[in-house]
Design brief:
By secondary structure, this protein is mainly α. Among the domains are: 3-85, no CATH class; 161-253, no CATH class; 279-322, N-terminal domain of TfIIb, CATH 2.20.25.10. Helix content is 59%, strand content 6%. It is built from 14 helices and four strands. The protein has helices at residues 3-15, 20-33, 38-44, 46-51, 59-89, 98-113, 124-138, 148-151, 161-175, 182-199, 206-221, 226-234, 239-244, 252-273, and strands spanning 278-280, 293-298, 308-313, 319-322. Strands 1-2-3-4 form a four-stranded antiparallel sheet, sandwiched between helices. Helix 1 runs antiparallel to helix 2, helix 9 (161-175) packs across helix 10 and helix 9 (161-175) packs parallel to helix 11. The longest helix is centred in the N-terminal third of the chain and has 31 residues, at 59-89. The two termini are 34 Å apart. The structure holds zinc ion. The site of zinc ion has 8 residues, from loops.
């Protein structure tokens, strides 16, 4: 049964909650049709609603509810166990947050099926390990020195001698010693060239276009500027910036300042975001064990890294973070 249908039935159940035969009919339908998954229970809150009838004075209803809740819990616990085994097999990166730890103990099942608002969420650990796996798969390892030719990348994008030459030169420079996949490097090169061409049209303004190319290229290959390449590949330094910045700004010292400024900006944004903190019961405070935790998420590193989640316990003020 689709989540949408379940939600409709849940609404129906709530509306006719004083009519025992109505309640029983809906419960029986749900019992027959619902395949319990954590996602479905979370989305529909069906577990929470059904559980409200556990203490019904109608024995037929209360008995059915107990049976349903138990079988849903079983189903979710089974899939949790499988997930956990997979996670252990993958040797998940330990996330320090006390919230996530408590979360893994299976408390989600209870909060989803029987307790509280049921607004619990999938384990953040699950998400994090998932994305780091993806990153591992994305790592590009080459046995030969990397460049467009060895990577099998076609840099003839525009059938324009100069523009394609620039893309190829950027590619060779950025791919050398990198573990980024060819597709991602080519995309980066294309967008740098595109921004360059927007700023200095290569046909009408060839001299400036070439000049900009030389500045960017020489900085990328510069030995005392090792991490520039990394930052460009990671997307920490954008194509727009490379194409339009004051060329002085590409010098290592200036760039360092620029990066510090970006970091400050990020922190500033984070403080702004605290206004939009949301309170959730998906995390448990490690200190007082309350489930009144507000959190916000932030990209503290590069865009392909997982988000960092900053938690504050609304009950005791305990703070922690994890990613
Ligand atoms: Zn607390």
């Amino acid at each position: 049964m689709e989540a949408k249908e379940v939600i409709e039935l849940v609404k129906d159940l709530e509306k006719g909650k004083n009519d025992d035969s109505h309640v029983l009919k809906i419960l029986q339908t749900l019992d027959k049709e619902v395949v319990a998954t954590e996602k479905l229970l979370r989305e529909t809150k069906v577990g929470v609603e059904v559980n409200k009838f556990k203490k019904s004075s109608n024995v037929e209803i209360s008995k059915l509810v107990r049976k349903m809740i138990n079988s849903w819990k079983d189903a979710i616990n089974r899939s949790k166990k499988i997930k956990l085994q997979q996670a252990q097999a993958n040797n998940t990166n330990g996330s320090g947050g006390s919230g996530s730890g408590a979360h893994n103990s299976g408390s989600t099942v209870d909060s989803n099926v029987s307790g509280g608002s049921g607004a619990s969420d999938v384990s953040p650990d699950g998400n994090v390990s998932g994305s780091s796996d993806t990153r591992k798969q994305m790592k590009y390892v080459s046995t030969v020195p990397r460049n467009a030719k060895n990577d099998g990348v076609d840099t003839n994008i525009y059938n324009h001698k100069l523009r394609d030459m620039v893309i190829k030169a950027f590619y060779d420079a950025l791919a050398k010693g990198s573990e980024h996949p060819p597709k991602s490097i080519l995309a980066t090169c294309k967008s740098i060239e595109e921004e360059m061409n927007k700023a200095y049209d290569c046909d009408s303004n060839e001299k400036s276009y070439k000049e900009r190319y030389r500045v960017i290229y020489s900085n990328i290959i510069s030995k005392n500027h090792q991490d520039l390449k990394h930052k460009i590949n990671n997307g920490d330094i954008t194509a727009v910036f490379l194409a339009n910045c004051d060329t002085k700004e590409l010098a290592p010292e200036h760039l360092k300042q620029k990066m510090e400024e970006i970091t400050r900006q990020n922190l500033f944004n984070a403080q702004g975001a605290t206004i939009e903190r949301s309170v959730t019961d998906r995390f448990t405070c490690g200190k007082c064990k309350e489930k009144k935790v507000s959190y916000y998420q932030l990209q503290t590193r590069s865009a392909d890294e997982p988000l960092t989640t900053f938690c504050t316990c609304e009950a005791c003020g305990n703070r922690w973070k994890f990613s």
